[in-house]
Amino acid sequence: MGNLSVIEPEDITADKAPAIYGHGGLGAYVEYAREQVAGEVPDLSTAASRARIASLAAKVSKSKVAVEKPGREYLKTIKELPKKIETELREFTREMDALRDETRKPLTDWEEAEKARVASHEAAIEAIRQTGKYQDEFGTRYDSEQLKSKIAHVEAVTLGEHWEEFEAIAAREKDAALTNLKAALDAQLKHESELAEIERHRAEQAERERQEREAQLVRDAEERAKREAKEAADREAARVAEAAAQKEREHQAYIDRVAREKAEAEAAALRAKEDAERHQAEAIENERKRIESERIAAEQAAAKKAANTRHRAKINNEALAGFTALGYSEDQGRQLIEAIVRGQVPNVSVNY
Predict the structure, then answer these.
(1) Quick one: 67 exposed, middle or buried, by C-beta within 10 A (0-12, 13-18, 19+)?
(2) 170 lies in a domain?
């Protein structure tokens, strides 16, 4: 290219492109092309001169292509460069992360195993604490048989090296649970004994009262029957006495009348006796019905109370199932239900 310090257009290659393009140096190639035609004087008088002009123009065009084409190829290359760098960086990051995770894996595995070990011991200790409770989450005290079962369950917990650093805590919780359960069992046995004694006295008193009522009914009926019989006898005696006074006036009539009246008296006495016996039987039956009605009413009240208790338990268990389905533990679910029932959760209640 004469005295220009640039690469000839036909010598531009891919490895030289970064030094040529993007530095404002393409103007030198324009000057080079201009030098190629600057000494020519256009002559259009002959075909040869006109061909010479066309040849010079074609040469300029060829030089343009020689410079532009490599530049366009280089431009494509640098446009693809960010994608290539991004891909390379992404692969580099993935491999470095994998190497980091692989390097830390022994420690990570140990940490996870340690968490699981500690969680297992803590869960076992919590199980001892829960077993050591003498009433359920609704405040209902366990009966003596349930408490005995809990004591046997806690006593079955073995202590030893398998508890590792949690052995002292486990021993302390076991002792506390047994102390609480045994104290609760003593109190419950005393309570159940007192309830049994109260129930026995109540049943005995009820039986005595029932027998006394029935005996009184019999006595009342007997006295009423005796009174009515005596009144009937007195009336009959008066009537007989009056009839005897008329014996002299009308002996034959008296005999006939006495016979008739005697028969009537006997019939009346029989009817009076039957009436007395019927009244006595009706009184006894009415009292029996009253006693039976009281018994049925008591049984219905007890059944209604038991049904209400079962219904509340059913609602609580359904709510508990809903909480456990949401990921809460059974203990957490019971605590939530208890808090709601006690009104400790604002704007939330349980409809029984």
Answers:
(1) buried
(2) yes
Domain with 32, as residue range(s), is 9-116
Reported as a pLDDT band with limits 50, 70 and 90, residue 242 is confident
- Same domain for 147 and 109: no
Residues 172 and 74 placed together within one structural domain of the fold = no
- The per-residue pLDDT for 8 is 65
User: Is there a contact between 279 and 226 (Cβ–Cβ < 8 Å)?
Assistant: no
CA–CA separation, 295 vs 289, rounded Å?
A: 10
Per the domain annotation, does 138 fall within a domain?
Answer: yes
0.70 exceeded by pTM: no
**Contact at 8 Å (CB) between 151 and 181?**
yes
The whole-angstrom separation of Cα 213 and Cα 150 is: 48
What is the rounded distance in angstroms from the CA atom of residue 328 to the CA atom of residue 321? 9
Q: Give the integer Cα–Cα distance in Å for 20 and 70.
A: 10
Domain-ending residue, one of 53, 88, 116: 116
Cα separation of 236 and 264, whole Å? 10
pLDDT at 4: 33
Structural domain includes residue 219: yes
Residues 188 and 103 in one domain: no
